[in-house]
Design a protein that fits this description.
Elements (H helix, E strand, L loop, with lengths): L7 H17 L11 E12 L2 E9 L10 E2 L2 E3 L7 H13 L7 E10 L4 E9 L13 E8 L1 H4 L5 E7 L2 E10 L2 E3 L1 H15 L2
Parallel strand pairs: 1-6
Antiparallel strand pairs: 1-2, 1-4, 2-3, 2-7, 5-6, 8-9, 9-10
Length: 198
């Protein structure tokens, strides 16, 4: 997919193609009822004539993944009617983006976190510039990162780990002073390979 744009029409075409690619492939789901249901929003925008993704740097005050780069998202509440509602609620709480300002394109694969979460991943488009109102207890910074880094696998380091009998690649990307690794990097790398690749 073309991730660089010369005009608004190019980004519109990208959005349509992205939505079609998400809808046309089978979703990888997990059957792990022991894991805690959670959801994240992968929010994409046009910035500097290319597709970029919003990531957040978590504070040292949060319960898990202190200081890590992550997507807006969190654990499902009983009041959430579904996991998309979880992702949208958490996005509003963490970075102040209202659901009506997000064009939801579809759902990507499910992932398992070694912290015990079953993570559903939803893809959305937001305008740029976008005014963020962060939860200071949870979010230290909002960072827009070019998507081509993950499509082209421009990682700086790769490790292999074993978890519950399976082997996983752990990617580390450095963008400015930020290190993107762990589950966030895995989701983005998979998304780049399965959705964004030509």
């Amino acid at each position: 997919m073309n991730l660089h744009f010369s005009n608004d029409h190019d980004f519109h075409d990208f959005t349509i193609e992205l939505k079609n690619r998400l809808a046309s492939r089978p979703l990888r789901e997990l059957d792990r009822p022991s894991l805690r249901a959670s959801a994240v929003m992968m929010l994409i925008m046009e910035k500097d004539n290319e597709a970029q993704v919003l990531l957040t740097k978590r504070t040292s005050k949060v319960g898990t993944h202190k200081g890590d780069m992550s997507f807006p998202g969190g654990t499902r509440d009983e009041e959430d009617k579904n996991l998309l509602a979880t992702a949208l609620r958490e996005t509003r709480e963490e970075v102040g983006i209202a659901p009506e300002d997000i064009e939801v394109l579809g759902e990507f694969d499910h992932f398992m976190s070694i912290a015990g979460f079953h993570v559903s991943t939803f893809i959305g488009i937001i305008p740029y510039p976008c005014a963020y109102t962060v939860s200071e207890d949870e979010i230290e910074a909002c960072v827009e990162v070019p998507l081509h880094l993950f499509r082209d696998k421009k990682f700086d380091k790769k490790q292999e780990i074993e978890f519950e009998g399976d082997t996983y690649n752990i990617y580390h990307y450095y963008y400015g002073r930020y290190e993107i690794w762990g589950l966030t990097a895995r989701i983005l790398t998979d998304f780049g390979t399965k959705i964004l690749a030509p």
